[in-house]
Each structure stands twice: as C-alpha cells, then as structure tokens.
Amino acid sequence: MAWLLLVISGILETVWAIALGRSAGFTRPVPSLVFAVALVLSMAGLALALRDIPIGTGYAVWVGIGAVGTAIVGMVALGEPVTVARITCLLLVVAGVVGLKVFH
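The chain above was modelled as a monomer; its predicted structure follows.
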C-alpha cells in the first residue's frame, strides 16, 4: 500500500508542478488552487508512504515520478522539444526508479 501511495503522490507532484507553471506567479486563481491542493496531497501521501519506505528510496522515487511526469506533459501537451537525448535521459530516470523499487 505504501508503494501505491508513493506512486500516486509522485503523480500529484506532476500535477502541482504543471499547475505552478500555469498559475503565472499565482495571479491565476484556478491553477493556483490546483497547485495548492495537489501540493498538500502529494506531500501528505509522501509522508505516509515514508512510514514504510526508507527516506532515500521513497524521496528518490517520488521525485523521479514527478520529474518524468512533468517532462512528459511538457513534451506532449505544452510543446516542449522531443529529442532522442531527452527521451534517453528520461528512460534512465525511469530505470533508476525501477531499480530502487526492485532492490528495496
């Protein structure tokens, strides 16, 4: 259950990161509210997951999911460049996250 909570919290990290960018410095109320709610839920989920998962592993997995998710949304929905080098680097992050789970 802790791993599922950690994955959901990582996805919520992607949500708050995208909402933060869309908030235009907190001048737009809806993205600002989405940011705040997703941030609190993401941190709460991370905190609960870390009851059963070591901090180094849990935090690295959480950040990895958030970083990869945010980069994918940027490329797919926000027009950020899609390059072989960028995809390769994201795959390396995914491999690291999977490795942390496997060797947990």
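The mean pLDDT is 96.
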